[in-house]
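Section 5.1 Outputs to date
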Amino acid sequence: MNSFLGTYRHTLDSKGRLSIPSKFRKATGEVFVLTLGLDGCLFFYPTDEWKRVQKKLGSLSFTSRKTRFFTREIAAHACEVTVDGHGRIIVPQELRELAGLEKDILVIGAIERIEIWSPERYREYKDGFGMTYEEVAETLWDNPSDDVNDGGEE
């Protein structure tokens, strides 16, 4: 499994192209799946990790309304992208709009995937989370089997 770490600042050019950090490209190759993420970002998966996501989605009950909705959304917005000779991908207009991407971009390693964020949206996400990094760590690290919800609500 690949491990993506770090935060990189890049820019979208006028044609919607985004440079992928060379460290990330070296770890995975040239073909990825780009799709709608969670919390306002895009998810960028190496093909082997995307296959694991597909397998997990396929194991969920299709009779569940939530499963059908989530599967439709993630699949409907997914596209295979190839890194060009200059280390760039084209981010489709629809995905740029959904993630609020304009010129400045954050490319964030999230262990098994890469996240693509608008810096403003990422700042809003962090500011509005409702818990500090340390508070979240206390709930997750010491009690990994506990059912912890997002946002710190009890």
